[in-house]
Structures are given as structure tokens and as C-alpha cells.
Amino acid sequence: MINRLAEVENKVREFILGELRWNGRGDELVPDYPLFGSAIADSIAFFQLIALVEQEYDVNLLDDGFEVDEFSSISMIANKVAVELNASTSRRR
């Protein structure tokens, strides 16, 4: 699961650096960097990011409602994806 977390974190980070045109230095965008309250995540960018992750990992991140805290950083998004992947694996068994 640790490899999966790192994979998701890298995918989200790449999206922010490339698609959202991160203005800071790349090394500043660490997994716990706050996405909200910064210039990174306006509402459109947030939903673009969620759509990318849902498509890439075949998960539905917003089905259980929306809690900002669950999406407040790259590491929180990766954790949410890991939980959803584990749940879908358990349902298939």
C-alpha cells in the first residue's frame, strides 16, 4: 500500500505542477502542503484534480459526500484513494 500512496502522491503532484501551473519551486510542493487557502486549488482546479484521480484509479472519491479535510493536501488525497481502492478490493472478494 505504501507504493500505491507514493504513486498517487506523484500523480497528483505532477498534475499540480503541470496542469495547474504551480508558481513555486517544485521542491516546495511536498505531500503535506496545504492545497486550500493557497493559490493551488480553486474550485475548478479541485474538480479537475479529483476527476483525474478518479479516472486514473477507477474510484469514486465524492460518493460518500465531501469533507474538505479529506482533500486538504496531496497526502490526504492519496490516503482517500488508498481507502477507496482497499474497499473496492474487499467488495470483489
Task: Give a description of the structure.
The chain is mainly α. The protein has one domain (2-92): ACP-like (Non-ribosomal Peptide Synthetase Peptidyl Carrier Protein, Chain A). The chain is 55% helix and 0% strand. The protein is built from three helices and no strands. Helix 1 (2-18) packs across helix 3 (74-92). The longest helix is centred in the C-terminal third of the chain and has 19 residues, at 74-92. The chain starts with a helix and ends with a helix. The model has no long low-confidence stretch (mean pLDDT 84).
Short key terms for the protein model shown above:
single chain; 93 residues; mainly alpha; Non-ribosomal Peptide Synthetase Peptidyl Carrier Protein, Chain A; 3 helices
* Major sheet attributes: none
First and last CA, distance:
18 Å
Instruction: Return residue spans where pLDDT drops below 50 for at least 5 consecutive residues.
Output: none
The total tally of domains equals: 1
Helix content: 40-55%
Kindly provide the radius of gyration, computed on alpha-carbon positions and rounded to a whole number of angstroms. Answer: 13 Å
Structural class: mainly alpha
Q: Based on DSSP secondary structure assignment, what is the total number of beta strands?
A: 0
In CATH, the topology is named Non-ribosomal Peptide Synthetase Peptidyl Carrier Protein, Chain A
Strand content: under 5%
CATH C-level name: Mainly Alpha
